[in-house]
Write a structure and sequence with these properties.
By secondary structure, the protein is α+β, with helices and mostly antiparallel strands. It is built from 7 helices and 4 strands, in the order αααβααββαβα.
């Protein structure tokens, strides 16, 4: 009843439509796959670059990876590891390595842009800390260090950085110091604040700790990290007799 040409024409049209739809579906799947692959490869490359730079001592590379899959979990673990490696476990301050990198970056920036403000490094040592450990134990000593670290961090300005150097020693990088008088003004303020009674010791302990603080100015006292820290350390020891 239906001519053969008309019948086959309909079948051929349906076949072509089916093939076209199949090809479109395959193209869409391949396109989505390529986009996903590029996103995954880009984030994996970010992790690879960050890992390499962290291995070279640079912990300041932001990842910028926000995902809810295994790569996102890996990025979060990497960020947490980076934070632990640059943070003092007891006080939560920056650790020695992080401070060295920060000072080095600050000096490089000043050399590059010719910043008119001088750089300043403070070296602080807690006085009479041995008495705290001897009388109340090392747990009490740890609490004292934590309290002093919190006071230091709260008193400093935005852009400054304080780190636990070792034991009861702290190093402070002052950002944008006008001159030595400005640095000495900050030292006077820190000493007054740190000499206040400690909440982490019994009220009737009779122990009043203070800090000896030395100042080193860039470029007067040195043009590299090691020299500046050494000068600040020596100035701190010269400051100790006045606090004894």
């Amino acid at each position: 009843a239906v001519p053969r040409s008309d019948y086959l024409h309909r079948i051929t049209d349906n076949l072509y439509q089916t093939i076209a739809l199949a090809l479109l579906a395959v193209a869409a799947v391949v396109g989505v796959g390529m986009i996903s692959l590029n996103v995954v490869a880009r984030d994996l490359k970010k992790l690879s670059v960050a890992a390499r730079q962290m291995g070279e001592g640079d912990f300041n590379v932001p990842l910028g990876i926000e995902r809810r899959d295994e790569i996102g979990d890996l990025a979060q673990s990497f960020t947490a590891m980076k934070r632990r490696l640059s943070t003092d476990r007891l006080t939560g301050l920056a650790n020695r390595e992080a401070m060295l990198r920060r000072i080095d970056e600050r000096l490089a920036c000043q050399r590059r842009v010719g910043d008119a403000h001088q750089g300043a490094v403070l070296f602080a040592d807690v006085d009479r800390f041995k008495e705290v450990n001897d009388r109340f134990g090392h747990d009490a000593g740890d609490k004292v260090l934590i309290e002093l670290a919190q006071r230091l961090e709260s008193e400093l300005r935005e852009g400054d950085l304080v780190a636990r150097w070792s034991g009861d020693e702290f190093v402070v990088l002052l950002d944008g110091v006008a001159d030595e008088v400005d640095g000495l003004r900050v030292i006077s303020k820190l000493k007054a604040m740190l000499a206040q009674p400690l909440q982490s010791l019994p009220a009737d302990s009779g122990v009043v700790v203070g800090v000896s603080i030395g100042l080193a100015m860039y470029p007067r006292d040195g043009r590299d990290v090691a020299t500046l820290v050494r000068h600040a350390d020596a100035a701190m020891y010269r400051d100790k007799p006045r606090l004894a």
